[in-house]
Amino acid sequence: MSQDSLLSDDFLRSLMAVGQVDVFVGVPTLDNASTIGDLVEAAQQALAQFFPRDRTLLMTSDGGSTDGTLAIARDVSPTRAGAAHTPQALRTTHRINAPSHGVPGLGRALRQILAAADLAQARTVAILSADVAGVTSEGIAALIQPVKEQRFDYVVPVYARHPLERPLVTQLIRPLLRAAYGRRVQEPLAGEFGCSSRLLSHYLAQETWGGETSRHAVDLWMTGAALSGDFTVGQTPLGSHRVAPGRNPGFQETFQQVVGAAFACLEYQAAQWLDRHGSEPVPLIAPSAAEPGVAPSVDGTRLTETFRVDLRSLQAVLEPILDGVTLSALHRAAATDGTHLHYPDALWASTVYEFFDAHRRSVMRQDHITQALMPLYLGRTGSFLIEHAASDTATADAALESLCLQFEQLKPSLIERWNRTSQR
Q1: Residue 287 belongs to a domain
Q2: Where does residue 287 rank: exposed (0-12), middle (13-18), buried (19+ CB within 10 A)?
Q3: Taking the alpha carbons of 390, 392, 397, 398 in that order, is the dihedral positive or negative?
Q4: Out of 3, 62, 189, 368, which could bridge 70 as a Cys pair, Cβ 3.0 to 4.6 Å?
Q5: Rounded mean pLDDT for each run of 10 residues along the chain, 424 residues in total
Q6: Which of 413, 349, 340, 411 is nearest to 377 (CA)?
């Protein structure tokens, strides 16, 4: 898809009036009325305070909001709270607020932002998430400065989280992507990041825009594209992470979209990661002073009981997906009552790898495959929560590290499956 089809004539004229910029901040939006005003204000303050000598542009691209998000963004005054004209600012922060064209969604809005940044020849780009509440000007600057001043290509946040929070990331996405790409990124699903012009060009050159890979869980796809190439990656602490209330799809929809996008991303980029072994740390650009969050109050036993019940009914679905040894091990685990059920790291890693292989081979409809993985994920998550409900953060973090190492150690089995099916 050409950039011309992404950017209207009026938008192009606005962009040409701005000219070339040093720092470009983009905010893709979709029904973010509760957060967009404060976020635009914080972004203006960050550009004025931390980049007063640079030519800067702040752009919001709306993916089809129905709650007035775009109007609120437009109404934020450039002089609100002195944001754009503080005494330190030597240049005006330019602003563009525009709807995206075509199929609604954040992916489309994000691509419009990247295309605009490319046309503006931006040297440094930051993408902010309007789903996050409480973003500060210092946090925005922390995504931009390492790219601008230290020549990082990709900078992602590290949030102050309790190790039992966000199990979809800690139990599945993080260990899977770490083992595949060989880089230890804490937040592979972060919707905010900084990137260089070199990585920006790489993003726009991808052929997957508009497909399932970039339409759902687009933040994961951006991370995968950065990790699969020869790009310098860094992490910066951004404190706590609070998702604003509003557009929250159900867990089943989120699970299927995220896992499906992860599998599709890995398949598309297989040539870049199949030969990678082990993993290397991704540098933390600044130390974190924030304390981990409070442990979530989740009933792990309820999750393991759901797993035990669903496993029996899924037998016919799981047989073409899982190896017989793996499926038998799952039934042995499920034979224990939910309070004491143990789903080992190695068994979980094998489960995920076999599901990925089945998804790649399309042994059945791919959405049915990701749907069938969800009860097993609940069993694994419930098992981990039960085991570490009373653990301190250091112990729980060590357990998450052991899980990641298990995914790395079993990666050869995934590669063997991949090569075997590729030769058929």
Answers
A1: no
A2: exposed
A3: negative
A4: 62
A5: 64 90 94 93 95 95 89 81 48 83 75 94 96 91 96 95 94 98 95 96 83 70 92 92 68 92 92 94 85 80 95 96 97 93 98 98 96 97 95 95 98 93 70
A6: 349
Identify whether residues 29 and 58 lie together within a single domain: yes
- Those residues whose C-beta lies under 8 Å from the C-beta of residue 212, and which sit 6 or more positions away, are 260, 261, 264
| The one-letter amino acid at 336 | T
CA distance 139 to 154: 15
Q: Does residue 195 sit in the same domain as residue 248? A: yes
Whole-number Cα distances in Å, 162 to 88, 134, 166, 303, 392: 38, 18, 9, 19, 10
| Rounded distance between C-alpha atoms, residue 105 and residue 353, angstroms | 30
Asked whether the beta carbons of 41 and 81 are under 8 A apart, the reply is yes
Instruction: Note whether 359 and 263 are within 8 A (CB).
Output: yes
- Asked if 216 and 183 touch (Cβ cutoff 8 Å), the reply is no
Residue in the structure block whose two tokens are 């192009």: 12
Helix (H, G, I), strand (E, B), or coil: what is residue 235?
strand
User: What distance in Å separates the CA atoms of residue 125 and residue 115, rounded to the nearest whole number?
Assistant: 11
pLDDT of residue 417: 92
**Same structural domain for residues 196 and 58?**
yes
Reading the block at residue 112, the tokens are 């419009």
Q: How many domains does the chain have?
A: 2
**Alpha-carbon distances, residue 300 vs 134, 259, 303, 308 (angstroms):** 30, 21, 5, 13
Residue 424 neighbours by CB under 8 Å, 6+ apart: none
Residue 15 sits in the same domain as residue 154: yes
Is residue 58 situated within a structural domain? yes
Residue 11 lies in a domain: yes
376 part of a folded domain:
yes
Q: CB–CB of 319/327 below 8 Å? A: yes
Classify the C-alpha dihedral 356-361-367-371 as positive or negative. negative
DSSP-assigned letter for residue 339: G
Tokens read off for 294: 């409070």
Task: Name the residue range of residue 345's domain.
Answer: 300-422
